[in-house]
Amino acid sequence: MTARTVHLPVAAQDSLSDVVGIGERAEELGYDRVWFPETWGRDAVTTLAALADRTDTIGVGTSIVNTYSRSAALLGQTAATLQEQSGGRFRLGLGPSGPAVVEGWHGQEFGNPLKRTREYVEAVRQVLSGEQVDYDGDVVQTRGFRLRQDPPEPVPEIDITGMGPKAVELAGRFADGWHALMFTQAGFEDRYADLRRGASLGNRDAEDVHTTFMLPCCALPDSDAARDLARQHLAFYVGGMGTFYRDAVARQGYEDAAETIHGAWQDGDRERAVASVSDDLLDALAAAGTPETVRQRVAKFAAVDGIDAIAVSFPRAADREVIDQTLAAVAPE
Fold first, then answer.
1. What is the DSSP letter of 304?
2. CA nearest to 149, candidates 169, 176, 124, 129
3. 4: β partners
4. How far is the C-alpha of 255 from the C-alpha of 263, rounded, in Å?
5. Most buried residue, 26, 108, 139, 145, by most Cβ within 10 Å?
6. Beta carbons of 172 and 207 less than 8 angstroms apart
7. What's the confidence (pLDDT) of residue 12?
8. d(Cα 238, Cα 230) in Å, to the nearest integer?
9. Between vectors from CA 240 to CA 190 and to CA 191, what angle results, nearest 5°?
C-alpha cells in the first residue's frame, strides 16, 4: 500500500507553532510522515526538532536540505541529533538544490552537483556509523571526525532528490530513497527507468529504493478557487525558481508552456505566467479541485508502479484553512 505523507508548507504561516501544528494535525489524521523543506523561511533543523517534541508516532524528515550551506560532517551530526530527538523517527533528505538558492542566497559556487551529492551521502553515512571519518573526496574533505555520542539507532536513511536522468540514476545507485518533484505520470515513469538503471549499476534492487512522489494538492468545495491556487503555485516554480523546474517540465512534453511561463514571469508579467498554466498541465502536475476530485487524482498517482509514498504538498499561497481542508480530504483511510 502506498504511504501517505505531508510536505509542510514553507510560506504563509504566521509562526513556527503554526507550522508544527500542521504536523500535529497530520499525525492525528494518520499520515505516515511529515517532511519539511528548507528554502528561505524557517530552517529545517529547528522546525523538525520542535515537531519531534510535539508529536509521538509520525515520522519526520527533511525534504530537502541542500549540500552547499552545511558541511557533510555537520549534516551527519544533525541527522544523528534529530534521530535522537525524534526517538528514531527521522529520515534525511538532501540534494544540491539549484543556482538560484546556492549562488543567490548562500553565495556558494554551484559546481559538481552530482558528485557533491554522492560524496555527501557517503560521508554522512560514515559519520552516522560512529566510526572515525577520514573522507578524501573531490568535493568533501573530512579528517579525524567522529561523533562524541553513541551513533544513532537505527541509523537514519538518506534520500536524495533528482529531476534529471543522471541525478535519478544516482539516487538508484547510492541512496536509500528518491524524492520526485514536479513530475507528470509519464515523466515519472521515464525517470523511474533511470532509477532502475542506477540500482542495477549499484548491484541493488530498485524496489529497495524508497520513492516519494511530491504532489501539490488543493481540495476545496470551490473547485475554481482550489485550481487557481494550484495554478499560481506551479507558475511560481516554473517561472521564478531558476531554470531547473522549467527544464523538467519541458522534458516532459510541455516545452512551449514551460518557456512561456518562465519568460512571462521573468518579464514581470505574473498574470500571463499564471494564465499560461493550462488545465492539462495543471492536472498533469497537481491534484486540485473539489475534495472528491482530488482524492481521485491522488489515488491515480498512488497506483503508479514505483511510487512508495505520496507526499501531499500545498500551494504556496494556501492559508491554514485551505491546508486543513486539503489534509482532511486526502487523509489515509
1. S
2. 129
3. 310
4. 12
5. 26
6. no
7. 67
8. 12
9. 10
pLDDT in tens, 111-161: 899 999 999 999 999 999 999 999 999 999 999 999 999 999 999 999 999
Distance CA 145, CA 136 (A): 12
Q: How many whole angstroms separate alpha carbon 290 and alpha carbon 222?
A: 7
Q: Are 119 and 137 in contact (CB under 8 A)?
A: yes
3-state secondary structure 93-162: EEECCCHHHHCCCCCCCCCCHHHHHHHHHHHHHHHHHCCCEEEECCCCEEEEECCCCCCCCCCCCEEEEC
What is the predicted pLDDT for the residue at 90?
Answer: 98
Question: Mean pLDDT over residues 34-47, rounded?
Answer: 92
Query: How far is C-alpha 158 from the geometric centre of its chain's CA atoms?
Result: 13
DSSP 208: G
In the numeric block, which cell numbers belong to residue 2?
502506498
Q: Are strands 158-161 and 141-145 parallel, antiparallel or unpaired?
A: unpaired
List strand residue ranges (DSSP E) for the chain, in order. 3-7, 33-36, 59-62, 65-66, 90-95, 133-136, 141-145, 158-161, 177-181, 210-219, 287-289, 309-313
Helix, strand, or coil (residue 77): helix
Written as nine digits, the cell of 129 is: 556509523
Question: Which of 1, 9, 82 is CA-nearest to residue 326?
Answer: 9
The C-alpha cell of 30 is what?
494518520
Task: State how far the Cα of 298 lies from the Cα of 259, in Å rounded to an integer.
Answer: 27
Distance, in Å, from the CA atom of 248 to the CA atom of 265, rounded to the nearest integer, reads: 17
Question: Which are the contacts of 23, defined by CB distance < 8 A and separation ≥ 6?
Answer: 6, 8, 34, 51, 54, 55, 58, 60
CATH topology for the 3-222+308-329 domain: TIM Barrel (3.20.20)
Domain limits, the chain: 3-222+308-329, 223-289
What is the biggest distance separating any 2 CA atoms in the chain, rounded to whole angstroms?
Answer: 59
The amino acid at 332:
P
